[in-house]
Amino acid sequence: MKQKFNIIESTCVPLPVDNVDTDQIIPARFLKATTREEKFFGDNLFCDWRYDREGKPKAGFVLNDPRYGGCILVAGENFGSGSSREHAAWAIAGYGFRVVIAKSFADIHKNNELNNFVLPVQASAAFVDELQACIAADPSVKVKVDLPAQTVTNLATGRTESFDIMPYKKYCLENALDDIDFMLANKSKIESYEKSKC
To answer: What are φ and ψ of residue 100, in 5° steps?
Structure first.
């Protein structure tokens, strides 16, 4: 979803699991879908963890727990490992997550999230562990993600960390531009450059 990104304050959905791969995020059978509709993929995010064989919500899975909500997912180590399917990022965005905070990300998945207007925030293990503990103790805990300042803050404790992001992708998120939008916005500069080389 193309939406300008600035500062977000939100409650969180905790997923304290390491090595969550893209097949767990969106199972391979959904790669055959002919739609790109966000709701379709969002409805099937973590499908095999979320629903039983009859399609009924499984008790105990965090997305089925009404105590947890918000647009920030808090994960563990190596989030988005496995295949490079972009559908995993579509599902995360389609569910409504705008930020994923994790101890580390698989590189391709991290880029897929950025391309789909989801901000991957890599924080230290200590920060993520403390945040997970705070959320477990009080699901109303909020996190502040400040993209311009490149900081993430646990508002329950006041602990803040900085995060890295490619300047180009930061600019695109702040201005709701995908790669094609960015190229079109710079069309005159590209044309001028091409003429100067003739």
So the answer is: -120, 120
The DSSP bridge pattern shows strands 151-154 and 142-146 to be: antiparallel
- CA nearest 114: which of 63, 164, 76? 164
Backbone angles phi, psi at 150, to 5 degrees: 55, 50
Give me the mean pLDDT over the 142-155 stretch. Answer: 98
**Residue 77 pLDDT > 80, yes or no?**
yes
Cα 38 to Cα 55, 57, 89, 90: the distances in Å are 19, 20, 10, 7
Q: Output 181 or 120, whichever has higher pLDDT.
A: 120
Report the distance separating Cα 115 and Cα 154, nearest Å: 26
Q: What is the DSSP string of 31-85?
A: GG-----HHHHHHTTTHHHHB-TTSPBPTT-GGG-TT--SSEEE--SSBTBSS--
Whether pLDDT at 143 is above 80 = yes
The owner of tokens 């803040």 is 160
Closest by CA to 2, choosing from 170, 120, 175, is 175
